[in-house]
Amino acid sequence: MPAKKPRNAFYAQSGGVTAVINASACGVIETCRKHKNKIGKVYAGRHGIVGALTEDLIDTTKESAAAIRALRHTPAGAFGSARYKLKKMEDNPAQYERLIEVFKAHDIGYFFYNGGGDSADTCLKVSQLADKLGLPIQAIHVPKTVDNDLPITDCCPGFGSVAKYVAVSIREAGFDVASMAKTSTKVFIMEVMGRHAGWIAAAGGLASEKEGDAPHIILFPEITFDEERFCARVKECVEKFGYCAIVVSEGVKNTDGKFLSDAGLRDAFGHAQLGGVAPVIAQLIKSKLNYKYHWAVADYLQRAARHIASKVDVDQAYALGKAAVELALKGHNSVMPTVVRASQKPYKWKLGIAKLSDVANQEKMVPRDYITEDGFFITEKARRYLSPLIQGEDYPPYKNGLPRYVELRNAPVKKKLDKTFVL
Amino acid sequence: MPAKKPRNAFYAQSGGVTAVINASACGVIETCRKHKNKIGKVYAGRHGIVGALTEDLIDTTKESAAAIRALRHTPAGAFGSARYKLKKMEDNPAQYERLIEVFKAHDIGYFFYNGGGDSADTCLKVSQLADKLGLPIQAIHVPKTVDNDLPITDCCPGFGSVAKYVAVSIREAGFDVASMAKTSTKVFIMEVMGRHAGWIAAAGGLASEKEGDAPHIILFPEITFDEERFCARVKECVEKFGYCAIVVSEGVKNTDGKFLSDAGLRDAFGHAQLGGVAPVIAQLIKSKLNYKYHWAVADYLQRAARHIASKVDVDQAYALGKAAVELALKGHNSVMPTVVRASQKPYKWKLGIAKLSDVANQEKMVPRDYITEDGFFITEKARRYLSPLIQGEDYPPYKNGLPRYVELRNAPVKKKLDKTFVL
């Protein structure tokens, strides 16, 4: 009796990319390649789930082992990501049926979806529907989000590297402002990402190891912005330390619950498109305190900064990609591998597993006891949680003074369906 | 006959600090320490020239060899810098006389001033006046400026590291935007420093090694901003490459010769305090082309980014500090050591010497033939000049996931003068 032909795998990246999402892709693809008797080809979605809907698949078997290996040190989404949230099943079943149709046409038996809370939900629904339609697909979610807001897992790949970037950057900028403060800039404001959860802003606090170190103030989305108390604190820092370095989360809200700065745009998930709270804070400081200021907005630089990635983060991103495949091979479905903190000191982590039904559409905020009582800094408890996540440097290779990041061939898979699909 | 007691040296940092100005300080101090028979103690000005005027001197002999060595990998100004430009000699001779008085009181025979064009001018005047007042001081300027706008020297310490930061960052952000462009952000704008000269913006161009690579557009202060042609170029890039990554210099001016964004503040040198041209460009793209955008303002992060410093830059910064002392020991006065490009391929550099009278108050702009005819990119000639300056990585040591930068004791020298001086 001939062996059953192994079914193919589909891998896609979703939402905002990170410095290490490709390390997860590397983990998925390298592990699949080691189990060719059980998993056929790995197809990637060009631009994430959009590639699946439009039958625009990438044949990763056309990539060399060296190219796939280089994904481990390459930031952003090598196959293209997408901000494209599927509608609710009952509102648009055709979308889900189309996915199953494409997967059926290409004999997809494994669905590895690499994203945040929204994509965990998509992953779950695809698995449920496939089952119902008689095409069993093992759907495994690979966690990823710089926002670090997924539940159950101790941390999310992508976060540790942003955290390291932010802590390193505010330390360096702090040294700069300290040098200038006597005759020039007294206040420096660095805006970081974090729509609703202040994990990234919190990480800036790691740069301060003793009294007076930058940053002096952190503004969290979890804490309502109080103009008066904030200005008083800035003044206190300038008088005490000679200068004041501030990390502000893009998601900081005022007493009306409105974002301090809202560009008015919304992304496909309905999230407000933010940016520019730093100049708002700077203007406030100028008008109320008349200090000379400088401000920076890190934006994409922070989440793309593979050059200063955390080794722990890179290792976890790879391990979770690998674990996703291994869970599938063990017969798991509708699950997500997680990071479990096995030991605090020395820091040790291991892999765990979570049901997607427990993960989808949930946000994990910074707990109140991670923030000092006055709302302007992190506590020791937060520091104990955050510090291990930025440990170790994992420098990419350089050529001509610049990091060598890989660009894949991304060869298309021949289409099999007549019908096209309008997004 | 007893040997003549060696006279002391004064060292100060001036103007905006850099990732490698402390490497020059390290070169100065370590070299002085090797010639104790000729140079006594090295005193540093606390907050640059302000420390000299107020007789607030730092005794660097109180610092260990290890602490001084660590300056080589520590960004910003370890003794404090100052934005404080001395008035013209004829407008305020008292300032210069005070400097000489302080130097006389502390037996200063060597004046090492680490700064840009303004401080080269100060250095020259101090030397001239000291001579006239019968207290000969050998004044040597140590070049420093991220703006890379000093004449004669092939390049300026501080620039190579900003150049590397900008090229690395726009490459990384370019990968990010490319991943997102299908369904989300299509245009990314990164604002960099460069008041009048576009060297830093130009360096971003190194990230693009083949057609389609980020960045696609560079906006220079040397080229008048033409809204219509710019928008047409952005559209062309988005249509051709799927996205558009832009590096914009803070000093870009419109057809009226006004900065696109001017915060209205001026610093002590009378330079406009800029920041925030990126959001102006973003808004333009939104309103004229309706593309989704993201923008970043690197600000101090770029010039403080010791974690991604250029090895060539660090080596040159140290060598110039060392050379300043060696020139003084050879009897030179009113000069500045320079970097001379000895060979283009392979890149080799050696040290030269320039008269301060040829250096002071001059700005070296990006030559027109370093910018493409359309004004939106760098030429091959520019690339040949810029590329060697970002070569090599010179990572600082890390502890707990963060770079270990040194903070000196900065012990004060006992004052000898009765009179205080009001700035």
Automatic annotation (TrEMBL), chains A, B:
Transmembrane segments: none annotated. Diphosphate binds at residue 16. Gene3D superfamilies: 3.40.50.450, Phosphofructokinase domain. Pathway: Carbohydrate degradation; glycolysis; D-glyceraldehyde 3-phosphate and glycerone phosphate from D-glucose: step 3/4. Residues 12-327 form the Phosphofructokinase domain. Substrate binds at residues 145-147, 193-195, 250, 300-303. GO terms for biological process: fructose 6-phosphate metabolic process. Its cofactor is Mg(2+). It is found in: Cytoplasm. It is an enzyme of class 2 (transferase). GO terms for cellular component: cytoplasm. InterPro entries: ATP_PFK, PFKA, Phosphofructokinase_dom, PKF_sf, PPi-PFK. The record marks 144 as: Important for catalytic activity. The active site is at residue 147. One of its GO terms (molecular function) is metal ion binding. Non-allosteric. It catalyses: beta-D-fructose 6-phosphate + diphosphate = beta-D-fructose 1,6-bisphosphate + phosphate + H(+). Its EC number is 2.7.1.90. Pfam families: PFK. The record marks 118 as: Important for catalytic activity and substrate specificity. Belongs to the phosphofructokinase type A (PFKA) family. PPi-dependent PFK group II subfamily. Clade 'B2' sub-subfamily. Catalyzes the phosphorylation of D-fructose 6-phosphate, the first committing step of glycolysis. Uses inorganic phosphate (PPi) as phosphoryl donor instead of ATP like common ATP-dependent phosphofructokinases (ATP-PFKs), which renders the reaction reversible, and can thus function both in glycolysis and gluconeogenesis. Consistently, PPi-PFK can replace the enzymes of both the forward (ATP-PFK) and reverse (fructose-bisphosphatase (FBPase)) reactions. Homodimer. This is Pyrophosphate--fructose 6-phosphate 1-phosphotransferase. The gene is pfp.
